[in-house]
Amino acid sequence: MSQSLVEVRSASFRYAERVIFEALDLEVNAGEVLTVLGANGCGKSTLLRCLAGELNLSAGSIHIDGEALQRLDATARARKVAILFQEHQPTFPFSALDVVTMGRTPYLSAFGAPSAHDRKLAEQSLEEFGLLHVKDRAYTALSGGERQLVLLCRTLVQEPDVILLDEPTAHLDFKNQVRCLELIGMLAGRGVALVSTSHDPNHAFLFPGRALLMQADRSVLIGAPSDIINSTSLAATYGIEVGVFSIPRAPPRQSLTFCSPW
Amino acid sequence: MILVPLAALYVSLFVGRFTVPAADVARILASRLWPIARDWPASLETIVLQIRLPRAILAMFVGAGLSVSGAAFQGMFRNPLVSPDILGVTAASGFGAALALLLSRGAFELELIAFLFGISGVGLTYLLARTYRSTPMLMLVLSGVIVAAFFSALLSGAKYLADPESKLPAITYWLLGSLNGASMRSLKVALPPIILGGAGLMLVRWRLNVLSMGDEEARSLGVRTDRLKGIIIVCTTLITAAAVSVCGIVGWVGLVIPHLARMWVGPDHRALLPAACSIGATYLLLIDDVARTASASEIPLGILTAIVGAPFFAYLLRKTQGGWQ
């Protein structure tokens, strides 16, 4: 039995004739954040949806915590894998607490409703994220940032082994971006395996874990961010010239690496 | 939530063209349970037990059923402008009834035919909407429009063929909706599907919350969305087809009442569905009281629900500025 929570073996996916990725091998361990980078429309979200079981691979296999993803039924899958989609527009003004409580659904019977215990878990996770003040507010009335954090809370009460995040910091202001990144780091610290797509290569340097670059020629680079993120690979991914810089910092912090156009 | 409809039921038993004293209503009802000396005329008992009681009970169940169906569909389609007839059940049932009237069938056969047509109409919509392995909402809505248009055309055809002296008025009047034909027998036809469908919706009301967040979201939370949608469609169709088959087309109830309920208890379907039942039952009962007492001849129910419902909906629309928050 392998120790990796996510194990992808020679996976391919194509929409009709269009190849999104091919012969992809990948594993994500507990406590690791895999940052998926690539240009718009390169298939980052597609990869995430395959990992969530929303889309089926054209070939290859995905194992979550040692079990084949396709063999898991919807409930068992939702107990292992949580996914945070890009911002969506909800119709009805559920309270933030109700939205977080929905994360308990995979633990309820088909006709069941959440118990007091489930609500308590939801409240605790809101408190932990410093969001208790929004618990009775309508989810629809929250700012984009608060909404994203509430949804992160929901993935927490889902108690998954793996959390998939589709551009979690998109549309957030700077403060909420930072809070969101902190929370991702905190989740990794608890032994969850995370896969997060991002538009910002700098995010890869912030977390323990590797980066995955989906390059323009459909080849994929996987490795430690400091090994694979450089001006050559970024040019091959985004088709632009950027520099990668490193500044030393006082121990125990490691040097800080970042990309910048100039 | 339970007391208000029951109070309305009691009131409905003594108002009418022939007023029965409130105390007598109580004693007539009690006499069914305890031995009480019968010092009231037998005609009074007939009016209360044989005519008004079945009609009032039917009004309550139809009102509650249409409202709870509307609430469930609005949640499922994530659209507060949806009503229970969106999948074509009303149009199909209406054509079934017109066909039965055209063929001079009795009341029982009419109800049965209308019910079966309603179910088949929705079945057709579902088959049309079914794609490779899922049923997207947009496909369902568009298929519903197609099926409704098709059955409306058939209905117009039936009207065109109908004898303008006798059958055309019968069809037209039936389509306007009325509880005039309510009897113990129509209760036996309509109540089982309404209760069955209502109970089914009540069972899935937490999952309806999750489904109303969107298909993908719901699936990621472990909800088998296609199966859940199937359950909801079957339940609402049972209710709506049964309602239409016994009292014709009663519009606006399933659209407006869920909004009232949402204003009262909020969007959580665990509270919303029971609230919709309660308000819907009371509303249709009171509207039907007006229908049978306001003028010398009975006013069709569908006219009244629209006359009350449309301005009220306009008021809601203005008040919420279309934001539905």
Q: What key attributes describe this structure?
A:
heterodimer; A: 262 residues; alpha/beta; Rossmann fold; six-stranded mixed β-sheet; four-stranded antiparallel β-sheet; B: 325 residues; mainly alpha; ABC transporter involved in vitamin B12 uptake, BtuC; 75% helix
Quaternary structure classification: heterodimer
> What percentage of the residues of chain B does DSSP assign to strands (E)?
under 5%
Number of domains of chain A: 1
Helix and strand run of chain B: HHHHHHHHHHHHHH
Number of helices, counting only DSSP H or I runs of 4 residues or more of chain A: 9
Q: Shape of chain B from CA axes?
A: globular
Based on the coordinates given, report the CATH architecture of chain A.
Answer: 3-Layer(aba) Sandwich
Fraction of residues in H or I helices of chain B: over 70%
Largest interface: A-B, 35 and 29 residues
Helix content, binned percent of chain A: 25-40%
How does the helix and strand content of chain A classify structurally?
alpha/beta
Helix/strand order of chain A? EEEHEEHEHHHEHEHEEHHEE
Shape of chain A: globular
CATH topology-level name of chain B? ABC transporter involved in vitamin B12 uptake, BtuC
Could you list the spans of chain B in which at least 5 consecutive residues all have pLDDT below 50? none
The major beta sheet of chain A can be summarized as: 6 strands, mixed
Distance between the termini of chain B: 23 Å
**Which CATH class of chain A applies here?**
Alpha Beta
Q: How many separate helices of chain B?
A: 14
Strand order of the largest sheet of chain A: 6-7-8-3-9-10
Question: How many domain regions of chain B?
Answer: 1
Describe the protein in words.
The complex is a heterodimer of chains A (262) and B (325). By secondary structure, chain A is of the alpha/beta class. Chain A has a single domain (6-260), classed as 3-Layer(aba) Sandwich (Rossmann fold). Helix content of chain A is 31%, strand content 26%. Chain A contains nine helices and twelve strands. Chain A has helices spanning 44-52, 74-80, 96-101, 116-128, 144-157, 174-189, 202-206, 225-228, 231-238; strands at 6-15, 18-28, 33-38, 59-64, 67-68, 81-84, 162-165, 193-198, 211-214, 220-223, 243-247, 256-260. The longest helix of chain A is centred in the C-terminal third of the chain and has 16 residues, at 174-189. Chain A starts with 5 loop residues before the first strand and ends with a strand. The model of chain A has no long low-confidence stretch (mean pLDDT 91). With 325 residues, chain B is mostly helical. Chain B has one domain (3-320): ABC transporter involved in vitamin B12 uptake, BtuC, CATH 1.10.3470. Chain B contains 14 helices and no strands. Chain B is 75% helix and 0% strand. At the A-B interface, helix 2 and strand 6 of A face helix 9 and helix 10 of B.
